[in-house]
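Thread amino acids onto this structure.
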């Protein structure tokens, strides 16, 4: 039985990953933004435990975790949480840049920094669920893509730095996936949302578990997932 700490477990890809880990007998610790959300996650994911830390405020994560009991063992840290607000460079205000950079990039960096000592002991794994936007930027996606390009750079640097400690680092780049976030994107785009046109959250969750379960003599460094034909 392994212990996995996961962000974004309350919906979408993160919820599916958490449920599948619990179903196979692993322990799941979900990061929730506040106490109310923590209660909701525990109700939705029986058997999971929670830590409260607001990813929108990375500078307070260390303080928040210092007030709670952390797992003695962590085998994987799964960064799945993310936010997106579309807008052109000409129109997007600083607050929306700052929010996306905070949640999508700075918070994962800080949470990883704080948990690396435990991950080194277990020779664990860090998985970043990135995005196709982390490889290619399109009009209207500047802030989100910048945060995700930064997340790729974070993962690449972390992989090189932690190789000597046996910590594996994986980036997964899904295309458009049928999640509540995708529905919100379509609302911002003013287009009809048809979930069947996109990758299922379950398919992306399978790639995460594949990376986790790979034998120790190998690691998946970067994995791109696109809709099937």
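Threaded sequence (229 positions):
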């Amino acid at each position: 039985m392994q212990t996995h700490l996961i962000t974004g477990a309350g919906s979408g890809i993160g919820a599916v990953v958490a449920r599948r880990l619990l179903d196979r007998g692993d322990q799941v610790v979900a990061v929730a933004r506040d106490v109310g959300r923590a209660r909701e996650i525990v109700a939705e994911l029986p058997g999971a435990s929670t830590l409260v830390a607001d990813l929108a405020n990375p500078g307070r994560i260390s303080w928040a975790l210092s007030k709670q009991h952390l797992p003695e063992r962590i085998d994987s840290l799964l960064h799945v949480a993310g936010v997106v607000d579309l807008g052109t460079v000409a129109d997007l205000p600083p607050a929306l840049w700052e929010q996306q950079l905070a949640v999508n990039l700075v918070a994962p960096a800080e949470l990883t920094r704080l948990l690396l000592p435990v991950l080194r002991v277990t020779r664990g794994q860090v998985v970043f669920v990135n995005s196709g936007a982390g490889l290619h930027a399109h009009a209207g996606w500047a802030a989100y893509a910048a945060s995700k390009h930064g997340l790729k750079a974070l993962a690449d640097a972390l992989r090189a730095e932690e190789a000597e400690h046996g910590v594996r680092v994986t980036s997964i780049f899904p295309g458009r996936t049928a999640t509540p976030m995708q529905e919100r994107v379509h609302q911002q785009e003013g287009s009809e949302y048809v979930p069947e046109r996109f990758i299922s959250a379950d398919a992306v969750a399978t790639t995460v578990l594949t990376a986790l379960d790979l034998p120790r003599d190998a690691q998946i460094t970067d994995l791109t997932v696109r809709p099937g034909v």
